[in-house]
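To whoever picks this up:

The nightly regression suite flagged SDR family oxidoreductase as changed. Nothing in the input moved, so I suspect the structure step. Input below, exactly as stored in the fixture:
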Amino acid sequence: MGETQTVPMIHEDALPGHESALDRKPEWQPRYPGSGRLEGKVAIVTGGDSGIGRAVAALYAREGADVAIVYLCEHDDAAETKRIVEAEGRRAITIAGDVGDKAFGERVVAETVEAFGRLDILVNNAGEQHPDKDIRDITEAQLKRTFQTNIFGMFFLVQAALPHLGKGAAIVNCTSVTMYQGSKELLDYSSTKGAITAFTRSLSENLIGDGIRVNAVAPGPIWTPLNPMGGASPEKMKTFGQDTPMGRPGEPSEVAPAFLFLACEDSSYMSGQVLHPNGGNIVNG
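Regenerated output under the current build:
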């Protein structure tokens, strides 16, 4: 299948990062044989090039889905995720661009439907974060950029996808433990995650009559390029994940099954809910 690329967008801190550049690679590999739970389905996974998105794409492919891998500018990571999906015997396309741009969201859906003929699952996983210890250090550009990527992009993709989603379709959004616990260094990021949780619950009410389920996953500290490549301060990275009850960061392969459960018929009686793979933190969610 084809690949579409765009001119990379550079953030203030040169994010996003590349999984290929990490010394310790995240564990994305599915842990079990597939059982056909997504046989014949087509999924869009934003942020699908690396981290949680790669693990979700790999697991969806193992369970029978064809996958559109949406990413910003990490072409090497996206190519590897495409190879992973195809190694599972499924089809994949890669589409590069800015999810915060409405026209790009429309193009993602159009190219997915053109390539695969249908759309059944939308995974809104793409996100960005920038640590700031002082709220006065958050520039207007960064504030707008974080909201544009993390929540505006979800609106744009849902708007574009809805004409192609029928009864039994699923939308799975990625929120965060920071929405429930707060984060003193991630003021803008955690605020977008609160918006995503409210969006998930409200969109569920809006679409449930059409047979479309909307749920979310709220990961805790997960070993992906997001944090070590500049999404967390160097001080925080020294003890990343150690403050969870399990005493370690999670792996993408430990989060992907939550996205699978919410996308398949196993969760047919769930909508407007949030799952919490977060290392044992108790949250009121």
